Amino acid sequence: MASVAARGTFRADRNVPFHLYLRMCILGRALARHRAEWRHARRLSALPAVEPQGGGPDDLPGEDLRAALARLSGRDRDLLERLFWKGESELRIAERYGVSQQAISKRKLAVIAALRRRLA
């Protein structure tokens, strides 16, 4: 779709090679689609904010879950406590540990996956 639009709007008098112009048109369309999807997601997820409940993992119902959390390493348990019980952001935790936010996000997903496997 973007290539058809690019072919119709390309102007050779601007001294830009067509392949570069086409690339920018495709990237522009992809970015516009991405923004539209995020706008839609924000509208759909207009749920009330949940305040951290305090307490900790030891206050959870279910012996299996408490046992699975107790088997985590200290750092992984601290990560989950900070994220889910204290309400800290991934960025703030990343700064505390001296790593990137992406590293914290990946670790969070890995820890949650490990918990799911243990509880399955």
- Into how many domains do the coordinates divide? 2
Low-confidence stretches: none
**Span from first to last CA?**
45 Å
Rg, rounded, reads: 23 Å
The percent range for helix content is: 55-70%
In total, the number of strands is: 0
Order of helices and strands: HHHHHH
**At the fourth CATH level, what is the homologous superfamily of the largest domain?**
Winged helix-like DNA-binding domain superfamily/Winged helix DNA-binding domain
**In the CATH hierarchy, what is the class of the largest domain?**
Mainly Alpha
Class by alpha and beta content: mainly alpha
Supply the CATH architecture of the largest domain: Orthogonal Bundle
Overall morphology: elongated
- Percentage of residues in DSSP E strands: under 5%
What does this entry look like structurally?
- The chain is mostly helical and 120 residues long.
- It folds into two domains: 2-44, no CATH class; 61-119, Orthogonal Bundle (Arc Repressor Mutant, subunit A), CATH 1.10.10.
- Helix content is 68%, strand content 0%.
- It has six helices and no strands.
- The protein has helices at 2-9, 18-44, 63-70, 74-85, 90-97, 101-119.
- Helix 1 (2-9) crosses helix 2 and helix 5 packs across helix 6.
- The protein is elongated and about 70 Å long.
- The model has no long low-confidence stretch (mean pLDDT 79).
Layout of helices and strands:
Blueprint: H1 2-9, H2 18-44, H3 63-70, H4 74-85, H5 90-97, H6 101-119
Helix pairs in contact: 1-2, 5-6
